Recover the amino acids of this structure.
């Protein structure tokens, strides 16, 4: 499993004060796949992604990424991480901000132009970041994550605030990247994006409610769509509690 999995999480617990944010979370993400991390706000998605990137203090359990412990220095140029908050400087242009991050990452010289084109910001390359719309900011942050051609992309709500056309374009990009062998872990609370993923991790209250393909989840729950499948699983869990 270690050779075929980009991410292996085993028995992960994360606590903040008296509250357990993640409880006994275990799963594996295949290399070169798009795995969706879905669930309502506050269920632990961002904390789990921070654990994968290696910037979260964990109480127990292990997280292995590309064969290394999460947070290992050897992973720094292999993981692209886009948070919900903008990761670009408001007083620089899009190009200037990306050139700065490219120099830090020692990315190839042509990477800035490449990622600007991939996220659809070509007409805004010389715009001040602080003047961008919310959706444009999300795309600029995604562009930073794409620098250097990482092997794993961890994307926290990358399509939030985007119109349907731009969302479609980004999901086409995600599919292209996966076809190249890049692994993507993409969080969302929008169930209609779930069908675009090869595998889904459905979260609720700090735990994994289900780990399966979209079609298998519909089949096992007898639901016509994934939102109903999620609700069916919630009710089943509550009945067993």
């Amino acid at each position: 499993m270690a050779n075929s999995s980009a991410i292996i999480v085993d028995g992960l617990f994360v606590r903040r004060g008296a509250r357990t944010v993640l409880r006994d979370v275990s799963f594996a993400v295949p290399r070169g796949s798009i795995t969706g991390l879905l669930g309502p706000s506050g269920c632990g998605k961002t904390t789990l992604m921070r654990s994968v990137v290696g910037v979260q203090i964990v109480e127990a359990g292990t997280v292995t990424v590309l064969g290394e412990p999460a947070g290992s220095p050897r992973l720094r140029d292999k993981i692209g991480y886009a948070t919900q908050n903008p990761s670009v400087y408001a007083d620089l242009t899009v190009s200037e901000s990306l050139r700065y991050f490219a120099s830090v990452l020692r990315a190839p010289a042509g990477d800035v132009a490449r990622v600007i084109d991939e996220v659809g910001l070509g007409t805004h390359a010389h715009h001040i970041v602080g003047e961008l719309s919310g959706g444009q900011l999300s795309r600029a942050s995604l562009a930073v994550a794409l620098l250097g051609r990482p092997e794993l992309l961890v994307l926290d709500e990358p399509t939030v605030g985007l119109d349907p056309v731009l969302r479609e374009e980004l999901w086409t990009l995600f599919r292209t990247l996966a076809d190249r062998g890049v692994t993507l872990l993409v969080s969302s609370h929008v169930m209609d994006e779930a069908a675009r993923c090869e595998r889904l991790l459905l979260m609720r209250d700090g735990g994994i409610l289900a780990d399966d393909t979209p079609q298998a989840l519909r089949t096992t729950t007898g639901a016509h769509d994934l939102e109903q499948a999620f609700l069916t699983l919630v009710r089943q869990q509550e009945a067993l509690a």
Remarks:
- The mean pLDDT is 91.
- Residues 135 and 161 are 5 Å apart (CA to CA).
